[in-house]
């Protein structure tokens, strides 16, 4: 049983990795098991989240199930 | 009608545009935009640029943008090519081309698609100068550009 966190952009540098396998469960429990410095960045006001490729609105209670992929998306800069 | 590609390798904007133009003989107007890595001198000069994407969202988002562009203007065709990976000065980053019966629709559609690629698509950019790598945040201009639509 595992879920996956994906760190995009500068969050990958802060985490020191692009992906992390975690135990499923409520997001606050998942984040509590991380390095607090990383968790603070992930919860930043400008960081959005996407669950299995679908953008979240920001107010939902996220509970990760087995096989879920939760991505943390900092502000984008393309083109 | 729309051709959308997310590429990890260099492409020739001239070849792509020639093929797109040849595919749309019915169009009286074709407008294109090419974004490339700037060549500069001095200590701030960008030596390399890297664009990261997220497989689960980046290409689907580009396809949705193409569909929205086609829905808004009467186009014969739309081409969107965007790079990811490491690029160097002079390398093409993004190519957008819109083919329409009349030029104004083609201008507007290409402009709309570019503004959204810049500030609403799932890409993260960092640049390497003499001081090392630095992540690029969106500019206020990018958001102002988006508000035009």
Keywords:
heterodimer, A: 79 residues, alpha+beta, Ubiquitin-like (UB roll), five-stranded mixed beta sheet, two-stranded antiparallel ribbon, 3 helices, 7 strands, 24% helix, globular, B: 149 residues, Aldehyde Oxidoreductase, domain 3, four-stranded antiparallel beta sheet, 8 strands, 35% helix
In the predicted model, the low-confidence regions of chain A spanning at least 5 consecutive residues are none
CATH topology descriptor of chain A: Ubiquitin-like (UB roll)
Radius of gyration of chain A, in angstroms, nearest whole number: 12 Å
Q: Tell me the span between the first and last alpha carbons of chain B.
A: 22 Å
> Count of helices of chain B?
4
Can you characterise this structure?
- The complex is a heterodimer of chains A (79) and B (149).
- The longest helix of chain A has 7 residues, at 36-42.
- Chain A has a single domain, classed as Beta-grasp domain (Ubiquitin-like (UB roll)), CATH 3.10.20.30.
- In chain A, the strands form 2 sheets. Chain A has a 5-stranded mixed sheet with strand order 2-1-7-4-5. In chain A, strands 3-6 form a two-stranded antiparallel sheet.
- With 79 residues, chain A is of the alpha+beta class.
- In chain A, strand 4 and strand 5 form a beta hairpin.
- Chain A contains 3 helices and 7 strands, in the order βαββααββββ.
- The two termini of chain B are 22 Å apart.
- Chain B has a single domain, classed as Molybdopterin biosynthesis MoaE subunit (Aldehyde Oxidoreductase, domain 3, Alpha-Beta Complex), CATH 3.90.1170.40.
- In chain B, 31% of the residues are buried.
- In chain B, helix 3 (103-120) crosses helix 4.
- In chain B, the strands form 2 sheets. A 4-stranded mixed sheet of chain B has the order 1-4-6-2, with helices on both faces. Chain B has a 4-stranded antiparallel sheet with strand order 5-3-7-8, with no helix packed on it.
- The model of chain B has no long low-confidence stretch (mean pLDDT 94).
């Amino acid at each position: 049983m595992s879920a996956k966190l994906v760190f995009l952009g500068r969050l990958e540098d802060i985490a020191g990795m692009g992906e992390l396998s975690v135990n499923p469960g409520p997001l606050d429990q998942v984040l509590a098991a991380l390095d607090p410095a990383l968790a603070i960045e992930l919860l930043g006001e400008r960081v959005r989240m996407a669950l299995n490729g679908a953008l979240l609105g920001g107010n939902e209670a996220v509970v990760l199930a087995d096989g879920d992929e939760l991505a943390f998306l900092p502000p984008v800069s393309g083109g | 009608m729309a051709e959308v590609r997310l590429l990890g390798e260099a492409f020739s904007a001239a070849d792509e545009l020639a093929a797109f133009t040849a595919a749309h003989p019915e169009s009286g107007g074709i407008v294109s935009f090419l974004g490339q890595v700037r060549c500069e001198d001095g200590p701030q000069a960008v030596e390399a640029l890297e664009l990261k994407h997220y497989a689960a969202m980046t290409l689907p988002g580009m396809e949705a943008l193409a569909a929205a562009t086609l829905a808004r203007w009467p186009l014969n065709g739309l081409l969107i090519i965007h790079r990811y990976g490491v690029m160097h000065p002079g390398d093409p980053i993004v190519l957008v081309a819109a083919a329409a019966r009349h030029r104004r629709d083609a201008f507007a559609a290409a402009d709309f698609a570019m503004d959204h690629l810049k500030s609403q698509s799932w890409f993260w950019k960092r640049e390497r100068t003499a001081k090392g790598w630095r992540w690029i945040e969106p500019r206020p201009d990018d958001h102002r550009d988006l508000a035009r639509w």
